[in-house]
Amino acid sequence: MPAAGPGPIMPASPPAPPIVTAATARTPSGCAVPRLLNTSLTMRPPIHIGGACRIIMAELRRDRALTAPPPRANLKQGPSPPRKEAVPMTRLIVADAAMRNLLAKREDAHKYVYGHALVLSGGPGKGGAARLAARAALRVGAGLVTVAAPQPAIAEHAAQLNAVMLTPLPDSYSLRGMLTQDKRLNALLLGPGMGINRAREMVPAALWAERATVLDADAITAFAENPVQLFGMLHDKVVLTPHMGEFGRLFPDLAQAAKDGSLTHVEATRHAADRAGCTVLLKGAETAIASPTGETALHRAVGSTAAPWLATAGSGDVLSGIVTGLLARGLSPFEAAGTGAWLHAAAARAYGPGLISEDLPEMLPRVFADLGL
What family, per the record (predicted)? Predict the structure, then answer.
């Protein structure tokens, strides 16, 4: 029999699709989202976000290939309308490897590596908010936390605090001296339970030192009659953490625009950050965050990320303490605000119904364990 000729030439097999691993979340062509962090998107310009979406600091952009007009089979229908160029999108907030990297502690570290947070308190009978914030700052990983209070309030704090340190602080002159002498005090919190008059006195001294600083509650309301005075003192290491009522005291026009729908919360917050020259975290079911350079982030606590139990007295004080603790640890204001908002809601979900504000700091270890820390 004649020898068999060569067989038909078969086309080469197409290359196998890249494999995405949950550990790296990367393909040969770039970054992808792990399967366990699936996202659900709905259309709500200018942000695409669904209630089940949880991200952290993942910048979304419209791809030019995706925004180009598709080919049309029926040319009689006319050309496709022009499409916008690729534009930066608002960052969303999810727990992933990036968050673990931000929150992990080195094996060879000591307490001063993770900063010293100073929480200013009000007078006797007004210290509960400061204690909530101080405990949250310590739980989130600040190396040291000190509550600074008027001398008559020291005994009240001492009866309820152990790991948190105490120091008497009578006036703004003493605060300037303290910050001048101890450069290790690298993150400050003013506002919770301070009282309007004490806040109005202390805020200029705190901002003079140009340390990372969170202003909340009374430290915001104290300047409601003259927001421009506050804006003139703010710097890019500051985080403002207002709820919508406090936001309206500093930015009444933006609050009204957000209320009537002419601006989204993210847009209003971005304008506020630009005007104030610092990071702004607008608290709510949709917590919007913006930096003075135009970065924006959103934590939308709805659906699987809902945390309705945060509607309780003192929860905002805990959030401001978490953000302060993260600043002490060295996170940037924008990172601290976004990470703090996620941790705050995650702690509430971990506890569930019956939550009171004292429970939130105690749930942070469970949240960290769930993150694999």
Answer: Belongs to the NnrD/CARKD family.
